[in-house]
Amino acid sequence: LNSADWRAWSNAGTALARLERWREAADALIAARHLNPDELALRRNLLSALVNAARWDEAAEEARELLDRSPDDGATRMLYAQVLTELADHPQALAQTAEALRRDRAQ
């Protein structure tokens, strides 16, 4: 795909994710993110693809950036906890889970 349109990359990533071609989906969604880093739905899809591709370090970075922009996003915080568990950072995984529950109760 040779496009400067983030939507084309995002659509390609979504299609590849539906085929469970996670690494390719993540790469396409990374291309889309470079073109439109402020699109949160795209960033959430990218996080999901990175997790499914077991690209843990990239997923952790993406989750942190998403949480900086949207700290009350419980689904992202729980996915981040899963990533931290995969990275064997169990204390932080527990802390993120507790924070997700705390924020959910406060709403």
What does this structure look like?
It contains six helices and no strands. Helix content is 79%, strand content 0%. It has helices spanning 6-18, 22-35, 40-52, 56-69, 74-86, 90-106. With 107 residues, it is mainly α. Helix 1 (6-18) runs parallel beside helix 3. It is globular, with a radius of gyration of 14 Å.
Which key features would you list for this structure?
107 residues, 6 helices, 0% strand, globular
Mean pLDDT reading: 96
How do the helices and strands follow one another from N- to C-terminus? HHHHHH
- Profile the largest sheet: none
Structural class: mainly alpha
Instruction: Give the C-alpha Rg.
Output: 14 Å
Please report the distance between the alpha carbons of the first and last residues: 42 Å
Number of helices: 6
Shape: globular
- Helix content, binned percent: over 70%
Number of strands: 0
Question: Could you name the ranges where pLDDT drops below 50 across 5 or more consecutive residues?
Answer: none
Determine the strand fraction and express it as a percent band.
under 5%
